[in-house]
Design a protein that fits this description.
2 domains; 7-stranded mixed sheet; Aspartate Aminotransferase, domain 2; 4-stranded mixed sheet; alpha/beta; 391 residues; globular; Aspartate Aminotransferase, domain 1
Length: 391
């Protein structure tokens, strides 16, 4: 008999009822250190006072009107994002998946309006994750994502991660855009080297195609810059954002240059809930904290501390771990043991992590995690590794 909740998730046997900063409290009272942050969503931690205040204040005024009308909080958040980024314009969604849908539409509409309707293909990369909509799974292309869901949305080409020759060979007269995550999340915390991202930007300019960056997981301060592409000193034409921008409230966005977005006039796209007053009020509060040199400087400092401690953990448990990878507070522990076993052992040690591809566990703590909490987190990971070896 099918359960009342569609059984699409392989859930851990945990029921969290409260969150405080970097901590999650289980229904039975146990306190877990949260190194997942809702899969890089709770950038400001759980129940951050500024976010609670922003949501509560807006909830007492107005929840929803739809985009038939002006929404002041939406305008404020758009202005903040435009001021802080490469973008000239923003469309708000409820999720990263919805952002992917618009990014694909925008790229194709750009070339249609330019008199090149044959340019519809988007080149994506092995190991990518761009959501679970029809466009998202077609962009990822893996059997795990697409099996049983055909026919797939056409117009996507897939090349191996890091294979420059295959990538260049894939570009032809039907290519509209390149779609890539500056740091793959689901793919196993794989950062794209700065020189490669610079090379992609140069190649897009040379061939007259658009660069779409998926910063749903690696954006909003996660890598120590407001957005990860800033490390390479380049800018995309279109960027997908979600997760951290809402600090736990469902919110996403597509950021774009005026040139890339020129074809998206009235009636070309829409959303009933996208950019609602509640989400945008929280988003403004997130940006007010995260988009400052002081906050991002602290993310970088704490990232260095956490990485140092994790390197010590790896050295102490060579039978369990083989290395550390990642950028900022988007880190991955490369496992010799089965990564899902490490995650389960972490639950027993009261620390929550997230599995990923390439036998990696993701460590995506709230960006507000303290030095003492980093030390405690590594202590608990050490206990989990010790328990695995003695099991």
């Amino acid at each position: 008999m099918i359960p009342s909740i569609l059984p699409t998730y392989n859930r851990a046997p945990l029921s969290f009822v409260k969150g405080e900063g970097a901590w999650l409290i289980e229904a039975d009272g146990r306190r877990f250190l949260d190194l997942g942050a809702g899969i890089a969503v709770n950038a400001m931690g759980h129940a951050h006072p500024a976010l609670v205040a922003a949501l509560t204040e807006q909830a007492g005024k107005l929840w929803h009107t739809s985009n038939l009308y002006q929404i002041p909080a939406q305008q404020e958040l758009a202005d903040r994002l435009v001021e802080a980024t490469f973008a000239d314009t923003v469309f708000f969604t409820n999720s990263g998946t919805e952002a992917c849908e618009l990014a694909v539409k925008m790229a194709r509409k750009f070339f249609y309006d330019a008199g090149q309707p044959e340019r519809t293909d988007i080149i994506a990369f092995e190991g990518a994750f761009h959501g679970r909509s029809s466009a998202g799974i077609a962009a990822a292309g893996s059997e795990k994502m697409t099996k049983g869901f055909g026919p797939l949305l056409p117009g996507f080409k897939h090349v191996p991660w890091g294979d420059h020759d295959a990538f260049k060979a894939a570009i032809d007269d039907t290519t509209a855009a390149i779609l890539i995550e500056p740091v793959q999340g689901e793919g196993g915390i794989r950062p794209l080297p700065d020189q490669c991202l610079k090379g992609l930007r140069d190649l897009c300019d040379e061939r007259g195609i658009l660069l779409i960056l998926d910063e749903v997981q690696c954006g909003v301060g996660r890598t120590g810059r407001l957005f990860a592409h800033e490390w390479a000193g380049v800018a995309p034409d279109i960027m997908m954002v979600a997760k951290g921008i809402g600090g736990g409230f469902p919110l996403g966005a597509v950021l774009a240059t005026e040139r890339a977005a020129a074809g998206m006039g009235a009636g070309t796209h829409g959303s009933t809930y996208g950019g609602n007053p509640l989400g945008c009020a929280v988003g403004c509060a997130v940006m007010a904290h995260v988009a400052t040199p002081e906050f991002l400087g602290e993310v970088n400092r704490k990232a260095g501390l956490m990485r140092q401690r994790l390197e010590g953990l790896v050295a102490a448990h060579p039978d369990v771990f083989t290395g550390v990878r990642g950028l900022g507070l988007m880190l991955g522990l490369e496992c010799k043991a089965v990564n899902t076993d490490v995650v389960k052992a972490g639950y027993d040690a009261l620390v929550a992590t997230v599995p990923a591809a390439d036998n990696v566990i993701r460590l995506l703590p709230p960006l507000t995690i303290t030095d003492d909490e980093i030390a405690e987190a590594v202590t608990r990971l050490d206990a989990a590794a010790t328990a695995l070896k003695t099991a």
